[in-house]
Amino acid sequence: MIYSRIAGTGSHLPDKVVTNHDLEQTLDTSDQWIRERTGICERRVAADNETTSVLAEQACLKALEAAACDPSEIDLFIIGTTTPDLIFPSTACLLQKKLGLPDCGAMDVNAACSGFLYALNIADKYIRCGDAKKVLVCGAETLSKIVNWSKRETAVLFADGAGAVVLEAAGEPGILSSHIHANGDYMDLLTTNAGVSVGWEETKDNGGKPEIQMRGNEVFKVAVRTLGRIVEETLGSNNLQKSDLNWLIPHQANLRIITAMAKMLDMSMDHVVVTVDRHGNSSAASVPLALDEAVRDGRIKRGDLLMLEAFGGGFTWGSALIRY
Ligand code: ACO
Predict the structure, then answer these.
(1) CA within 20 to 30 Å of 190's CA: 66, 132, 159, 231, which one?
(2) How many other CB atoms are found less than 10 A from the CB of residue 14?
(3) How far does residue 51's CA lie from ligand 1's centre (Å)?
(4) Pick among 2.130.10.10, 3.40.47.10, 3.40.50.2300, 3.30.70.20: CATH of 3-173
(5) Is 206's pLDDT higher than 90?
(6) pTM of the prediction?
(7) Is 149 in the pocket of ligand 1 (CB under 6 A)?
(8) Contact 217 CB / ligand 1 (< 6 Å)
(9) Is the CB of 219 under 6 A from ligand 1?
(10) 135-154 per-position pLDDT tens digit
């Protein structure tokens, strides 16, 4: 049997830090409200010239270095992003050139916040079926560029960043299983007001630019319910118990959602990787960013059992159970 395993991780954040106190200057909000409702204290925001591919390039280089993998060895490149540099060419194509990858397959996956888990799921399948030996998988976003900075409901939440892993073929798992789902019934709860086919709805208070629109409270309830189901599905399909898990690496949308997940899994918060306080919600980048942080600071060790999960616009949701 061929399995896939994580050979190396990497991540990258823009330098610019925007604190809750900074946002208090321009929005009818408070540090206290943001901390209590979301757990966020500060977030990273890309500069004008820092596009998604710029952030992704740095994360990918670090993952390749950690895996001791030359770019020429990569058989497939997949990036989860909902904020591509361009409509086309894909961000994956831009990165194929930037990273000096061979002319292997390169694709963007748009599943909002679940983008990295979707990309990981596809990469794992390519390796298991023998079509690829090494796959570079990335999650990267510049959500700040589609946030309406005059709307407190969304401006305090979203952020920018990138994370990546090199997956390689192995005789032992690695990825024990990964699961992806979608349900378009909920499309209106979390969406953007712009698209190529549907066109543009001119937003007066955002300079006519597209923006994220979210009915946060309703999203919150479905997210907790749905993530509860997918972690059960993931453990069940491997005949494993909650107590077998060493680490939960959740999507970093809201500390209250993360805490609810830890409770469902009977895990103490000491075994949950939390970055939302410093990173905000960086959508498809949030899970690989958190994974890389905990790998590099030595919390996650080889042999540990990890549960990764994410939920986002669509709705989409996904998980992976990984023996690191
Ligand atoms: N500062 C101060 N007050 C605010 C702010 C703010 N930034 N934002 C909203 N409020 C007010 C509201 O207007 C409302 O006021 P009212 O009671 O006078 O009407 C009150 O606070 C409560 O608003 P709620 O929306 O009910 O607040 P809630 O506790 O639900 O927190 C939040 C909002 C943080 C958005 C939460 O619902 C959440 O995290 N939802 C899930 C987000 C998520 O998981 N998204 C999925 C992934 S993202 C992706 O896919 C791109």
Answers:
(1) 231
(2) 20
(3) 27
(4) 3.40.47.10
(5) no
(6) 0.97
(7) no
(8) yes
(9) yes
(10) 999 999 999 999 999 999 99
